[in-house]
Design a protein that fits this description.
48% of the residues lie in helices and 8% in strands. With 368 residues, the protein is of the alpha/beta class. Strands 1-2-3-4-5 form a five-stranded mixed β-sheet, with helices on one face. Strand 3, helix 11 and strand 4 form a beta-alpha-beta unit. It is globular. Keywords: Signal.
Length: 368
Amino acid sequence: MMITRLVYLSLWGILGLSCLVNDSTLQVWADTVVVPNNSTSTTTNSTCETAEARWSDTNVKEVLDAWQFTPDEQARFLELRIRLSDIDHWKNDPAEVARFIKEHNFHVAKAEEMFRGMIAWRLENDIDTFMERYGEPPAIFHYAPLFLLRGLDHDGDPIFVERIGVLDGWGLYQRLGLDAMMDAMRFVSEVHTSREVGIRTEWQWQKGHYERVMGKRVTQFTILIDLEGLGLQLLRPAMFQLLSETARIAQDHYPGLAKRIVMVRAPRLFQMAWKVAVHFYDDRVQDKFIFTTKEDYLDILSKYMDLEVLPDVMYPGGGKGSQMPGFFEKIRMEGGPIPKDMSSSSSSLQQEETNTAILSDLTAASAQ
């Protein structure tokens, strides 16, 4: 049980913090971008684009070109679009529908079921107004070594790094609590996946600049999960609770963000535990994982990217890569413990009693 939780915790970044990450990932695609004065607005306006505008021939062509669907895949994509025509929601656009049909291997009925489930979840939890209510993640997150590299992979797609092995996940949890961490992850997920005109943060303007320069839409990322330094000190029932919830939300409501997930420098203990934990993830997610060890990770990574794009902390002596500027001035690539004098938000402190009770319940349940 303890070994399995170690795997779950590491995958927090893949399917959970990945939301916090992958989304942060969209933060910046260029060093210098001219951002309109109102670009930081987070007001949601679900009626600013009609279904006809969202599904214009130009938008559909851009999405199909970006994904490079075959004629048969295009037909299934359009079939799904027809099946969803009764849904009058700004999420019903070519980019979102393409991610769902691709992630479900062009199984139209399954993709339709999951898409409708996503819409129902958004309405039930008032996700459409979340950006208005949230504001921005607390500054403490700049101690999370999760960042987008300046370089691209061989396909010309962005690379996102999550140094889970040196992440002080428990420190974040202690200061923020479950609800605050979930909100931060949801924030970056919304920024990442939304093309709604009403939600235009600086991150999205920079993403738009990247797309113009590269001449294609951003569809997916290569994600590197660096497990160097992973220890048993992060094994906490509360962290398992966090992973379980974020993994479920990521798989069901924000699918298809990663085209491959490379586990870098995976410890032997992790590899053993993975054989058990892998069964808790959908087949479509399992197929994206690639494992590397300390001995072979550079050879394997070279198949997908030039090694020079890696930071020195991951490729000592050879890595020249750096992170793109993000929501914070500079993410700490080296990770490490969060300073004790770094305060949490008052709302997080108010949740302390509730979180302690949750931790106690989970501890009791895990002992059964």
